[in-house]
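hey can u check if this looks right to u? its 439 residues, i copy pasted from the old doc so theres a chance i mangled smth
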Amino acid sequence: MSAVHDMAYGGAFRVLDQSASATGQGTAFAAQASDPSAIQFNPAGMTQLDGVQFSGGMLLAGAKTKFRSANGTKVEGTFGGTVAHPPPSHLYLTANLGYLTNEYLKDWTVGLGVTTPFGISIEYPTDSQVAPVAASVELPLLDIKPTVAWKFNEFISVGAGLDIYTFASFIGEGQAQFQQTAAAGNAFGLPAGTSLEANGTDTALGYNVSLLWTPLRNNEEKPLVNVAFVYHSGADLNFRGKFLAGGARVADTATTIELPNIFTGAIAVWPLRDEFHEWKVEVDVDYEDWSDFKDLNLNLSNGQAVPFSRKYGDAFVVMVGSEYAWLQPSLLPDWEIAARAGYVYSESPIPSSTFEPGVPDSAYSAPSVGVGFLCRQGGAFLGLVSCDGFGVKAIGVDLAYQVRLYQTRGVSNNNNGALINGEWDTTIHIGALTLRLNF
């Protein structure tokens, strides 16, 4: 009946990209976790961060989904503009307690993050063949992440945090929205083409735990090998909102989305690491368990119910990334410069029978490139601002570009029949920008 909008970023509607430094490396970052985005990728990595550090940024993402039905009808969906708006964003703040209080707490680090790890944003023409299934979907979901990490010894650090999933009135519509047009002979007795909308909000709680093991270091005590494990628990979003027909309220509505359990294993190796250069190679593997997401049934306060089968499964995501850093380049001796590249391959957890336009997901490949610049004491950011003034010890900026090439998906046995059966193609272009401040 209704639509829920989705940004097809990862398996189903997961958004992998949560910092430009990670995106440039194909999001293979859980074992490195060397900047404040460790809050998202591996909280145990926060123990590697000195003092107080901040990073924040956004993704500029544009996409096209093209559908060609068996009878030759063509439909195109987008993020509702050249780029998704509002852009998915990330904010992180970490603080070593030894720096803030006393040396006895130097092994403890706390952090707070705000991210968008799941999201949807897609629109189709309201007069298109797919509009009776999905005309537009939005899920501007935020994740507020209070986090703590402890360095147990020189080899092992552990981390843990909460994932508070919620909505904010200043982000998009401040709620999940699913829109479609009424089909002929619909259960509500409405004229064909009538706009239908279901919306709702909720706040749900999840958690994460992580481990960072460093079995090998160089003479300067910097890691040469890091091994990581991260677990993000699932959470149930029990939406409560309104069902509208032609803009008028018909009933209150309720439905549930089950977010997945995610297990991450990662290893990072530095073949070269000295005072002048660092070269890292990393491989991460995610296992996403979406099996609890069996349906998205819409229950109305007037007693009617609209079934939406989902029957999601599981998916593996493989991420490979590398970073080469010049720590004291001759032309810019007060800067660190990093070049990055990566690759992601992701399976899809969505079966063809329950595939729908709101989440036009399929397996994809995603190459990426990126650069990072960190200005330290003695340098000037953009040639204007001292990099060690006003309490700031370093200023950095990270940039990345990624293209997601989704495999053409042929759908022939869909529950919605001829409306959805055909070939689906999606391509997403992602630009990432992150600013870093070290205090």
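The first helix runs from residue 20 to 23.
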